[in-house]
């Protein structure tokens, strides 16, 4: 409630709170009160998903995996007979 109250001081239409430990039910209820400034609650998992989706602070690696093509060798063996 205090956070939402301070939003009008800065002329903000909405706000966001990032919490690494998650949010209690009361906080989630307070964040979506109709006709008041909207507050987005972002927990650690959601923050990580945003960072990954935007490519911020993450590195992607591609790993090639080679596997034996059993069908190829079965067909090869069958054509040998």
Protein described:
Helices cover 43% and strands 15% of the residues. The protein is an alpha+beta fold and 81 residues long. The protein has one domain. Strand 1, helix 2 and strand 2 (38-43) form a beta-alpha-beta unit. The longest helix has 11 residues, at 44-54.
Keywords:
81 residues; alpha+beta; two-stranded parallel sheet; 4 helices; 43% helix; 15% strand
In short:
The protein is built from four helices and two strands.
Evaluate the radius of gyration.
26 Å
Instruction: Name the helix and strand elements from N-terminus to C-terminus, one letter apiece.
Output: HEHEHH
User: Quaternary arrangement of the chains shown?
Assistant: single chain
How many strands?
2
How many helices does DSSP assign? 4
Q: Mean pLDDT score, rounded? A: 88
Domain count: the total is 1
The coarse silhouette is rod-shaped
Q: Percent of residues in beta strands?
A: 5-15%
Q: How is the topology of this model organized?
A:
Blueprint: H1 2-7, E1 14-19, H2 25-31, E2 38-43, H3 44-54, H4 70-80
């Amino acid at each position: 409630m205090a956070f939402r109250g301070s939003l009008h001081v800065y002329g903000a239409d909405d706000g966001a709170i990032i919490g690494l430990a998650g949010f209690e039910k009361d906080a989630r209820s307070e964040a979506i009160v109709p006709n008041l400034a909207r507050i987005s609650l972002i927990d650690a998992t959601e923050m990580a998903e945003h960072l990954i989706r935007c490519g911020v602070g993450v590195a992607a690696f591609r790993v090639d995996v080679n596997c034996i093509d059993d069908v190829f060798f079965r067909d090869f063996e069958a054509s040998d007979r």
